[in-house]
Design goal:
The protein is α/β, with parallel strands linked by helices. 31% of the residues lie in helices and 23% in strands. It has helices at 62-74, 95-109, 123-128, 148-154, 170-178, 194-209; strands at 13-17, 23-31, 36-45, 54-58, 79-84, 116-117, 121-122, 136-139, 159-161, 182-185. It starts with 12 loop residues before the first strand and ends in a 6-residue tail after the last helix. Bound molecules: S-adenosylmethionine. S-adenosylmethionine binds at residues 139-141, 162-163, 165-168, 186-188, 190-194, 197. The site of S-adenosylmethionine (SAM) has 18 residues, from α6.
Length: 215
């Protein structure tokens, strides 16, 4: 990548980060087809704590998943968990490819972390072992849940969840609503695509409880 895409060579400088220790400028010493040796020169940024917001999303069509990973990484998502629901219409996901998307989006935004992407889990399994202190903001388009603004004023969720293209089943919605750590919300009168709904909730979460208050 350094050699063939960025066309860099010995003597050029790049910045490095590992998600733990901050950002460093470094000079390329040697660069061949399989390896590179870089000399770390100095620290350019220190690592800062970031909001820990997770995105739980159904396996959607490939383009929608790519779009969601890219945009939610830009918006600061810390972790993605693909969820299998009763109406999920895709079964396979290439985690390696999604991880590469997340790296590119993270570089684009100059954040110093790469979000984790976990293996897909069944919604019921996920809810069964969920850590109860992390509230899940869940999109419900049935006009029976309170507005997102109201819920975010009264609570501080740590994850967002949306249903698949065909929505959650009645049974899934009832299960979700029975969990004390799930807050179902309305995102207004329009029915949004699942990826749009997830990004809208992440945006609202960042604005109210995230790091948008800092410059
Ligand atoms: N029930 C619909 C159907 O029959 O296809 C649409 C499901 S929608 C495309 C996918 C998901 O986005 C929903 O399960 C919900 O989580 C979320 N969503 C979409 N619009 C929403 C809204 N206005 N309020 C809250 N959540 C919404």
């Amino acid at each position: 990548y350094l050699r063939n895409v960025l066309r860099l060579g010995a003597g050029k400088t790049v910045t490095l980060f590992n998600g733990r220790d901050g950002e460093f400028s470094a000079t390329i010493q040697t660069l061949d087809r399989k390896s590179a040796i870089l000399r770390i020169d100095q620290q350019t940024r220190s690592q800062k704590a970031e909001p820990d917001f997770w995105v739980l999303f159904p396996l959607l069509k490939k383009d929608a998943v790519d779009f969601l990973i890219e945009k939610a990484t830009e918006l600061g998502a810390a972790k993605f968990i693909p969820v299998l629901t009763q109406r999920t219409n895709a079964k396979n996901v290439n985690l390696e490819r999604l991880h590469r998307h997340a790296i590119e989006a993270a570089e684009q935004t100059e954040r110093l972390t790469i979000p984790d992407i976990e293996a897909p889990q069944k919604l019921t399994d996920l809810l069964g072992k969920w850590a109860k202190d992390r509230l899940i903001l869940t999109g419900d388009e049935s006009h029976t849940s309170p507005p997102v603004r109201e819920v975010l004023a009264a609570s501080q969720p740590g994850a967002v969840l949306v249903g698949p293209e065909g929505g959650f089943t009645e049974q899934e919605l009832a299960l979700l609503k029975s969990k004390p750590f799930v807050k179902t919300v309305s995102l207004g009168p329009r029915v949004l695509r699942a990826d749009t709904a997830a990004l809208a909730m992440l945006t609202a979460l960042q604005m109210v409880h995230g790091d948008w208050g800092s410059k």
